[in-house]
Design goal:
about 280 residues; alpha/beta; Rossmann fold; nine-stranded mixed beta sheet; two-stranded antiparallel ribbon; 7 helices; 11 strands; about 25% helix
């Protein structure tokens, strides 16, 4: 992906199945990947509150059997590794439902180096509705890199100290691998709801610490477009893939809300171009 002469950032949103679209992206072409994949935590009938008609955790795209889920993860991760540049960083989010399988796959099948596990602590996490477990108030992020003898991972150490801080991490000190970030605020959901929308602050930290301006960031499960919006705000290029019509509309509205003369946005449907995406 190339910037024009005015150094505008370029953002491409592709409407299509991630496993198919990823195959069209060139080898060793992506600087940073952030993936918020299906966690396989949904239930066929969802979960209900005893005092409410509200149903959660019933997304059909988030339901797999055990072997199907492992093979799905192995396939999309393999395609992402292929597209990642040597020295590029690969971030994957998850919970206990998926993160251990993913760690095994990226380390033992694709031989990536796991640099850190980041614990995202949510101080305002939702209560446990079953009252049968401890309240889940964290998610996990695996930060891995594709290294070789000539290329090592990028880490903007100075920026991580000066620009990443919270109640756990004092400003201008080494940033710990526990990040306190509240749940996605309502102001970031004004264009529609996505059941697992990540806060912009989470993506900001990832992007500024492990990429440079005008690098290209890939999100294979774009969801509500948080990665693209964060790339716009932090002067990176982006490619997002999303298969859900409703979520594509949310992405378009969020990006249009950020549109100005400093960005170029392209929307594509998978199959419109068969010559590959560079």
């Amino acid at each position: 992906m190339i910037n024009d002469a005015l150094n505008k950032t370029v953002h491409k949103i592709i409407h299509g199945d991630a496993l198919k679209v990823l195959k069209t992206i060139g080898d060793n072409s992506i600087d940073l990947i952030f993936s918020d994949p299906p966690y396989n935590m949904s239930k066929t009938n969802g979960l209900k509150w005893s005092y409410s008609s509200h149903v959660t955790m019933h997304e059909p795209w988030d339901i797999f059997d055990k072997d199907e889920f492992f093979n799905f993860n192995r396939e999309w991760i393999g395609e992402c590794v292929r597209t990642l540049k040597p020295g590029g960083s690969f971030w994957i989010s998850g919970t206990f439902h998926n993160i251990f399988d993913i760690g095994f796959i990226i380390k033992n099948i694709f031989n990536l180096k796991i640099n850190n596990t980041i614990v995202w602590y949510k101080p305002n996490a939702q209560p446990n509705i079953t009252c049968r477990f401890f309240t889940e108030s964290t998610e996990y992020l695996l930060w891995a890199s594709k290294n070789d003898s000539k290329h090592k991972w990028k880490f903007n150490y100075g920026i991580s100290k000066s620009d990443i801080y919270d109640n756990i991490n004092p400003k201008n000190k080494q940033t710990r691998n526990v990040w306190e970030i509240p749940l996605t605020p309502k102001k970031e959901k004004i264009y529609g709801n996505h059941p697992s929308q990540k806060p912009l602050e989470l993506l900001r930290r990832i992007i500024i610490s492990t990429s440079d301006e005008y690098d290209t960031v890939l999100d294979p499960f774009a969801g509500s477009g948080t990665t693209a919006v964060s790339c716009i705000e932090n002067n990176r290029n982006s490619i997002g893939i999303e298969n859900n019509d409703e979520y594509i509309n949310i992405i378009k509205n969020r990006i249009n809300g950020k549109a100005n003369g400093s960005i170029i946005v392209n929307y594509e449907n998978y199959g419109d171009e068969q010559n590959g995406l560079q």
